[in-house]
């Protein structure tokens, strides 16, 4: 029987020099502190005792107060609710702070990750793939960062599906602040989890560390858009090391946010164009997954309205699907600069065109 107290777990979590690589082997073979210390090496015993000697009681009280809320949970390595897939990775966290419904961690999950500064098409792909996949029965797991992560959570919520946010701060600290509203909705309808105790502020080193949990919880990881130097590529490679499926959406060769996906594809990652591609690959593992009728823009290209003026249709044809400057459109179309500027403004208002970096424009699918 597990005899670790809640304070024991919280102290181990807050131990400055204790880590999962040290503690997990000991936790696997001990059910209380006496057994852990008996099996620890002298140097490990010293670190554990130092953690208990140095722990700040105010921090422990803060943690315990946070856990008094009905929807706040501490899911320890010994807890039956601790996800079995996460135990399979090389360095699982010894405990998770959970805000929401912890039962979601036991459901089939797909991680969706990508750039914090995606193109408009990338945002749409994140939202629409997520909405489709959540409708098919997968829980969507991401990091609640700006950009692709935000779109992924929003897509799952729009489908009234399940979503889990793995964050790099304490469970009571939302980063970025612009996602406060989204965080409240996820906590109410899904789950927010963190290995960092309450009060932990944003720190650059925490976000790459939490990525192993995003991939570790999931049967697969989808990379929507990512630059060559990207935390999303770290997540993808961690997923591969963990023996999980990895998928990537290709993009324009001119889009720097597509180069990370193209690198992954060259490394053998599965290229996907539709959510159905992913469901088909995973459905043999999960009989509960269903192939929905494709509804998102990556699967069905919405044609411009037949009522659109011919000049506007021609301009869209000259744009193609790669980012393009106004000068390039003037050259391709033969229209005047004034006409191109006016048409681009109207097309952007209608949702057919979006602004991209470098003064370029990108064709996209208008929202239904």
Describe the structure concisely for a colleague.
The protein is of the alpha/beta class and 368 residues long. It folds into three domains: 1-55, no CATH class; 102-282, Rossmann fold (3-Layer(aba) Sandwich), CATH 3.40.50; 310-363, Winged helix-like DNA-binding domain superfamily/Winged helix DNA-binding domain (Arc Repressor Mutant, subunit A).
Would you give an account of this structure?
It is built from 16 helices and twelve strands. A hairpin with a 3-residue loop joins strand 11 (353-356) and strand 12. The strands form two sheets. A nine-stranded mixed beta sheet has the order 1-2-6-5-4-3-7-8-9, sandwiched between helices. Strands 10-12-11 form a three-stranded antiparallel beta sheet. Helix 7 (120-135) runs parallel beside helix 8 (148-158) and helix 15 crosses helix 16. The protein is of the alpha/beta class.
User: How many extended strands?
Assistant: 12
Strand content: 5-15%
Q: From the 3D structure, determine the CATH topology of the largest domain.
A: Rossmann fold
Termini separation comes to: 55 Å
> What's the rounded overall pLDDT mean?
90
